[in-house]
Amino acid sequence: MGGRVSRVFRNFNVENRARREISKEKPTPAPRHRTARPDTMADSPEIKEEVLRKDDQFLNLLKDVYVESRDPPVRVKDGGGEHLLPSKQQEKRLTKLGHLEALDVKKVPKGKISLVEALTLLNNHKLQPQVWTAEKIAAEYSLELKEVNSLLEFFIPFTVVEFPKDTKKAITSQNQKKLT
């Protein structure tokens, strides 16, 4: 309600007030100082001559100046190893993929494994834990033993279990309760 009232007073006689404001005479600006204007300095012939005149003494001094510039060597600060640029090419090893080689990368840096390799070694360890021990996996894939132990402890591959059809029939053939 208050917005309507204030809008009525704000819009009252708007056109007449605007015309009155536009028709007022504009105040004349204060005069500027003569030396503050840049166009008056450019017009004087003395300044033009001074700018265009060559000074032989300064030219001779300028010819004697020789500047040699060298950039300091770039140093990478140690910030915990997160954002460091590699100082040399990392050693890479070929992946051990077997029949899944079309799905993954061909070369991996030492100390790392690809996704397909990780799934393969986890599955091998799950199927044959006596053969595929953590030490053998670390030696085979050029990994640290601590990382392999963590990998085997915290990551487990999925298993697919299919229920036999007999069980399915037994579940559906039980007496079903009627809802009333």
From TrEMBL:
Domain of life: Eukaryota
Similarity field: Belongs to the NDUFAF4 family.
GO biological process: mitochondrial respiratory chain complex I assembly
Complexes and interactors: Binds calmodulin. Interacts with NDUFAF3.
Region (Disordered), start-end ranges: 16-46
GO cellular component: mitochondrion
Protein name, UniProt field: NADH dehydrogenase [ubiquinone] 1 alpha subcomplex assembly factor 4
Alphabetized InterPro entries for the sequence: NDUFAF4
Annotated Basic and acidic residues bias: 16-27
